[in-house]
Write a structure and sequence with these properties.
heterodimer; A: mainly beta; four-stranded antiparallel beta sheet; 1 helix; 8 strands; elongated; B: 289 residues; twelve-stranded antiparallel beta barrel; 4 helices
Chain lengths: 115, 289
């Protein structure tokens, strides 16, 4: 085995984090499964990679499937933020999909509850 | 330069040149599920990836393997594997070259399911006489992956579970070697899925990217009296980063015929589609999936 090739590949792997790749969800506010005493005014998601705004999206719905976004999501860099209409006591579902500059796509969904 | 190196260099060079104009292809993702690359058994993805090296120490033998998989079309890849065997005594040398085309035939994002078919060809006579067979073996294979993200809320803590499986029928191309059923798979629990899709556990980024896994690989004779089933069960951990993956597993034989004592397997794995998304990491032909 060529040890130089191995070292070069490891160096590439370690330095490639700024290149486009799969965008995984890094932080969410409110987070998955959260139980909140007061309703959030927005949903904020942070990803591991820079997003392609035109191809990425986040939605918030109630149990009837109604969209609760107060405006279009703002997607900038690695973050997505969507302002919400006033929420009552219920469980809500956040769904997102993220596309990076190289067209790699990831998606996810989770729920949070306002009590 | 030996035959394998010439073939590998040709594949890599042509892929790099032609692949510049092609779109990217994601590895290991079906719907909301990310399946890490398993290290004992083949996972069901046709992807651009490199395992360099895979080190296996078990039953008085140490193997060092290299596997490179290149997509030619979205959902179609050819994997080339080569390795060095160091057994007890004078048994040492390179094993046979292995070539394995695979084709993803069905994906269901909602149910996190993927089905792949393939052929594994161990090219007889390409390895050292001391450790490699002179005749080829052909193994048509079926592989699948299933995530359990579609379970109901009452079972939400089982949603991070996923399984992969593989079953193949090994047909020797010559000699009196028996036909075998090669089967195995993996049971994995994704902490990333737990953290992001079920309930935030406050895990650090590093810990959240760990997937506890139990792999199993078995080989069964097809005719009674030729021998029973041998195999190993391999519990371990896979850590998946943005472009590189580290994995280590213990190797536990299931019976005496399968080997003696505990072993281990470890692998450094590169996601070529993430490392080189605009060149080597794209299919040679075909558009966006």
């Amino acid at each position: 085995m060529n040890s130089r090739l191995l070292v070069a590949l490891i160096a590439c792997a370690c330095s490639a984090t700024s290149a486009s790749a799969h965008a995984f969800l890094k932080r969410a506010q409110p987070s998955a499964g959260a139980v909140l005493a007061s309703p959030p005014k927005s949903i904020a998601l942070a990803f591991t990679e820079k997003l392609e705004p035109a191809l990425s999206c986040v939605n918030v719905t109630d149990s009837a499937g109604h969209n609760l976004a107060a405006a279009a999501p703002v997607i900038d860099g690695v973050s997505m933020i969507v302002p919400l209409r006033p929420l009552g006591r219920a469980t809500y579902r956040v769904t997102w999909h993220a596309v990076t500059g190289d067209t790699h796509r990831t998606e996810g969904a989770y729920t949070f509850t306002v009590k | 330069m030996n035959r394998f190196k010439r073939v590998a260099l040709c594949v890599v060079t042509s892929s790099w040149i032609i692949g510049i104009a092609s779109p990217a292809l994601a590895h290991g993702v079906v719907g909301q599920r990310f399946f890490p690359a398993t290290i004992t058994t083949d996972d069901p993805f046709a992807a651009d990836e490199l395992a360099l090296p895979t080190i296996t120490s078990f039953n008085h033998e140490t193997d060092i393997d290299v596997d490179y998989s290149k997509t030619f079309l979205p959902g179609f890849a050819v994997e080339v594997g080569y390795g060095h065997v160091h057994a007890s005594g004078d048994e040492r040398g390179f094993g046979n070259l292995e070539i394995a085309p695979s084709l993803e035939v069905y994906r269901n994002s909602k149910h996190e399911f993927i089905l792949t078919t393939g052929l594994e060809w161990e090219v007889g006579g390409t390895g050292s006489k001391a450790v490699a067979e002179r005749s080829s073996t052909y193994t048509p294979t079926l592989k699948f992956g299933k995530g359990f993200g579609d379970l109901p809320d009452s079972m939400k803590y089982l949603r991070p579970l996923a399984v992969t499986g593989t079953v193949g029928y090994a047909i020797p191309g010559g000699g009196d070697a028996p036909k075998l059923i090669e089967w195995g798979g993996a049971i994995e629990y994704s902490l990333l899925y737990l953290q992001n899709n079920v309930r935030d556990q406050g895990l650090s980024d590093f810990v959240a990217h760990i997937t506890p896994v139990v792999e199993f690989a078995f080989s069964s004779h097809t005719k009674p009296g030729e021998g029973g089933t041998t195999g190993t069960i391999n519990p371990g951990l896979i850590w998946s980063g943005q472009s590189v993956q580290l994995a280590a597993e213990a190797i536990v034989p299931v019976n005496r015929a399968s080997g003696h004592g505990l072993g281990f397997i470890a692998q450094l794995h590169f996601y070529i589609d993430d490392l080189f998304p605009h060149s080597l990491g794209r299919p040679i032909f075909g558009g966006k999936k």
